[in-house]
Amino acid sequence: MALALAGLVARSAPQAASEMTLPTMTLEDQIDGRHVAFYYSADSNAEAAQLSRSYERRLTIGSGDTLMKVLVDAGAGARDAYNAIEAMSALFKPRYLKPGHEIVVTLRAGAGDGAADTLVGFKLIESVERDVVVSRDGEGFTASTVDHPLTLDVAAANGVIENSLFLAGETAGVPAAVLADLIQVYSFDVDFQRDIRSGDGFSVMYERYLDESGAVVRTGNVLRASMTLSGKEHELYRFANADGQVDYYDVEGKSMRRTLMRTPINGARLSSGFGNRLHPILGFTKLHTGTDFAAPRGTPIYAAGSGTVEYAGTNGGYGTYVRIRHNGTYKTAYAHMSGIAKGVRVGTRVQQGQTIGYVGTTGRSTGPHLHYEVIRNGGFINSRTMHLPSGEQLKGANLESFMAMRETADAQYAMLTEPDSGSPSSELALANRSAPLPQGRSGIPGRPGAAAWIAALGSQ
Length: 460
Prior knowledge:
The structure is a single chain. Residues 1-51 and 421-460 have low confidence and may be disordered. The two termini are 56 Å apart. By secondary structure, the chain is of the alpha+beta class. The protein has 3 domains: 2-147, Nuclear Transport Factor 2, Chain: A (Roll); 150-258 and 393-460, Nuclear Transport Factor 2, Chain: A, CATH 3.10.450.350; 269-381, Glucose Permease (Domain IIA). The longest helix has 21 residues, at 396-416. It has 7 helices and 26 strands. Helix 4 packs antiparallel against helix 5 (176-186) and helix 6 (396-416) packs parallel to helix 7. The chain has helices spanning 2-12, 67-74, 78-88, 165-171, 176-186, 396-416, 450-458; strands at residues 25-31, 34-42, 49-60, 102-108, 118-127, 130-137, 140-147, 151-160, 201-210, 216-229, 232-240, 246-249, 269-272, 275-278, 285-288, 291-294, 300-302, 307-314, 320-325, 330-337, 339-340, 349-350, 355-358, 369-376, 379-381, 433-436.
């Protein structure tokens, strides 16, 4: 490729200016494995031909990386990298850079042997909604943003559970993040190891965000869901009360939230229950004071309830351990963790569902799992059989607003899962149909007005 370009220049140079009518040309090649674009152009005087070579590198930020290191390693000079980062800082602080962020770096190859490459600019893909673009401006750099507006719509799916909710959800096309939210919402009442049987069913209606091309780039809230367990349907709805507090409620307007979650981890397998057992390491029978959930190392562990951390650190055979005081009656403990979440320390306040640590196998453990304990008035109790008071019951205007919202959500779900004319009336034929979420409010933060919603559904 280099020889072909050199020949083109050599043939052009001797010609008179009036004979030089070469158009700008773009060619492509690979240099050291890099995708390189060559731009050839001739000025109007044809005194000389200028050949510039620029190339891009698409890089992913790794753990411990800094933007300066990434740019310099890509081939930028340290001074250019510093100035470019300074320009970017007005729109995006480098300290917010996270592993997984992508950067597209554009450089111009040096003019001669050993000459350093020149940083032309870079694009930081901050999120699916925004890019931060840094471009060379003379001797310095300027920064700007490019927004990618997303469209919010609502999708619905349902299915029959044969083995697990996760497998059934994947078969119906439900994103993993939505399934994780569904499990967490139901974790107050449902034992996913014992309560679910083959032939049980589920349904879910949830938000999702589409980019300009119509591709789903992320999911939002679960709006409506149901699980049919042993023939009995358990429905729930997301609702914001007059004070803006959001929770999930059953058909009567009673909160699904209880003091403690029975399962403070997603996607885990119950590996050992509460009670006397032969200890796998000590070799004699003793009381197993908690419930064990086997899960891959690094799986997030959630606070089973809101409260104050009273212990966070190493604790003998428990390994890395956290204990939370929820009130004067209940405490919960989490053992064998690989690590404690950032900011979780003695005296800090944590919220129900907040990540407090990660599954590991520290202490007296035979494999990665969470050992979860519930302590009531100083004594250990079985988390699988404990009876806790049910959540808040909506009343008055809040209950009226909830009932109206529930009717709207049921109407939308019915519309989304109505089979197409002439299509098979199977469960899978109903999965993942969607309708746009219209504007309009009914006094409920974040929810469309009932009239606008139903009118929009009728126009689908």
